[in-house]
Amino acid sequence: MHIEKNFMDNIFNTIMDVKGKSKDNVKARMDIKEYYQRKNLELVTIINDKIMKPKAPYSFMLEQRRSICQWFIGSKMPDGYGSNISQCVDMKSTRLFGLKSHDCHIIMEVLLPIIIHMLPDYISNPLTELSIFFKDLCSSKLSEDALRRYEDNITIILCKLEKIFPLSFFLFYGTSSTPSTLRS
């Protein structure tokens, strides 16, 4: 459940472009130029040597972020299903805070596919597949065949996500900014 919470935090904070929490920051964009060669995500130098970070296709616009937060504020959960997520919404910074692991579990498996429908299909489909993967993995019945299928599927899903998100999206706390395989 903690891995699911980490994934949900990374996904949600990145698509909502939460300042200080998003995995899409200036250092990640510098890595994109060095390792990925994705021109649409590279930092751009503008007048007076100021650096601008172009909007990523996997992040929502301000109005979309506000509507998502409004949706969370207005959402009602059945008693005992989850905590009152509406109390965890910060409209000013358009982010969620103070979520418990179970709240992240509900968002990741049930609510995320609803939220990401506004993103392009090539972004929303792998995220929906990841959501389904966690839902299947956390189901009450598991078979050996299903686990083998999940093992194969998660590799494909992660490859799809690597094509969309920056490298830093896949690095968790306590790791360096670039993996040793990429260092010279």
Secondary-structure-derived class:
mainly alpha
Biggest sheet, spatial arrangement of strands: 1-2
Give the low-pLDDT segments. 173-184
Number of helices: 6
Oligomeric state of this protein: single chain
Task: Tell me the helix content.
Answer: 40-55%
The biggest sheet, with number of strands, parallel, antiparallel or mixed sense and barrel status, is: 2 strands, antiparallel
How do the SSEs run, as a string of H and E?
HHEEHEEHHH
Description of the structure:
The chain is mainly alpha-helical. The chain has one domain (2-42, 53-170). The protein has 6 helices and 4 strands; from the N terminus they run ααββαββααα. Strands 1-2 form a two-stranded antiparallel sheet. A two-stranded antiparallel ribbon has the order 3-4. A hairpin with a 4-residue loop joins strand 3 and strand 4. Helix 1 (2-15) packs across helix 4 and helix 5 (121-137) runs antiparallel to helix 6. The longest helix is centred in the last third of the chain and has 19 residues, at 144-162. It is globular and about 60 Å long. The termini are far apart. 25% of the residues are buried. The model is unreliable at 173-184 (pLDDT under 50).
